[in-house]
Design brief:
Number of strands: 16
InterPro entries: F-box-like_dom_sf, F-box_dom
Pfam family, one: F-box-like
Domain F-box: 78-124
Number of domains: 3
CATH topology of the largest domain: Immunoglobulin-like
CATH class of the largest domain: Mainly Beta
CATH architecture of the largest domain: Sandwich
Number of helices: 11
Largest sheet: 10 strands, antiparallel
Protein name: F-box domain-containing protein
Length: 332
């Protein structure tokens, strides 16, 4: 190989006084007698020389870890991002949010093809909403599903991520107006829609949809009442699970954390045992007395504090309660 000719060689003296030549290859010193080359060798070409080549013998006898180190050491560290293989870029894109992916599509034709691929957006849908499949007959009848359009539609209707304690089967009674951290408020109603033991069982679903990690301070979550003369409602907050997003499209099991850190598309579910006003009997009447939920948080990197507000929506409250003949109330 003429490309290696003329490169400098180093010599060192062994303990016995013998002079030997050294040639660096990915952090290791070799002299390939199979191809008689000198200097920094191209390990792939030297492996093709013959079975008597010392490099080939070292790879054949070494552990897989040493082989991986050799391969990684021979990769140029100055490789540009656009030179990476498509499957590597797709893995990187899965760690971004939807807004960043949309901006990447504006760079050039290759990035537009990669960032807009249907398979990538199918996995983004699973990562954002924590679903493994879409049971929608209308979408199935249309043939090929454009997952990016499905993603955009679900974002526009503020669809809740799915878990055993959240999802489309739980009616939403309130939400926030922010776009970086989304909050949904639901309730676990009693059988007869009456206030049970003077408390309401509310649930908060908090999801981070921005790239910066967020820490939720659950011990400082509070509920405020519409009547200014009343103090904030007494409450007990318990963690029902932290759901981490997956870059492989799988749904991860819930985790428990005292101080949860929400990465992009992670969400957490809190059960809130809140004391209702003492003079009400029905759940909808009690819910009308509440104004909003205050959720303190901070950005994990900058430690900047942020207060999110989730408002009770009165029209949504009465939409899900119905009085039947005979004075029986049901939750629909």
């Amino acid at each position: 190989f003429a490309m290696h000719a003329g490169r400098t060689r180093r010599t060192r003296t062994k303990g016995c006084g013998q002079q030997v030549e050294e040639h660096d290859l990915a952090g290791r010193n070799f002299e390939c007698r199979g191809c008689q080359t000198r200097g920094r060798l191209d390990w792939l070409r030297c492996c093709c020389c013959c079975c008597c080549c010392p490099i080939w013998n070292w790879i054949r006898k070494s552990s897989w870890l040493n082989c991986v180190r050799l391969i990684i050491g021979s990769i140029p560290c100055c490789m540009k991002l656009e030179e990476l293989p498509s499957h590597v870029l797709s893995r990187i894109f899965l760690r971004l949010d939807a807004e960043s992916l949309a901006k990447l599509q504006l760079l050039d034709s290759r990035w537009n093809e990669l960032a807009g691929s249907n398979e990538l957006w199918r996995m983004m849908l699973s990562k954002r909403f924590h679903v493994q499949s879409v049971n929608n007959q209308h979408l199935k009848n249309t043939g090929t599903i454009e997952w990016k359009n499905v993603f955009s539609n679900w974002v526009s209707i503020r669809r809740m991520p799915s878990s055993p304690f959240s999802g489309q089967r739980y009616p939403v009674l309130g939400w926030n107006a922010d776009t970086d951290v989304l909050i949904w408020l639901t309730i676990r109603p009693s059988e007869d829609c009456h206030v049970s033991s003077g408390h309401l069982n509310l649930r908060l679903i908090i999801q981070n949809v921005m790239a910066a990690p967020v820490t939720v301070e659950s011990s400082r979550i509070s509920f405020t009442m519409k009547d200014d003369g009343q103090p904030p409602a007494e409450r007990a907050i318990s963690d029902l699970g932290l759901y981490k997003s997956s870059c492989t499209g799988d749904v991860n099991p819930p985790q428990r954390a005292e101080y949860p850190i929400l990465e992009v598309y992670d969400f957490i579910v809190y059960n809130c045992h809140v004391r209702a006003p003492p003079d009400v009997v029905l759940e909808p009447d009690a819910l009308e007395r509440f104004s909003e939920v205050l959720i303190p948080s901070r950005e994990h990197n900058t430690k900047a504090e942020r207060l999110y507000r989730c408002e009770f929506v009165e029209s949504e409250i009465w939409k899900h309660y119905e009085c039947l003949p005979g004075g029986f109330w049901v939750f629909t």
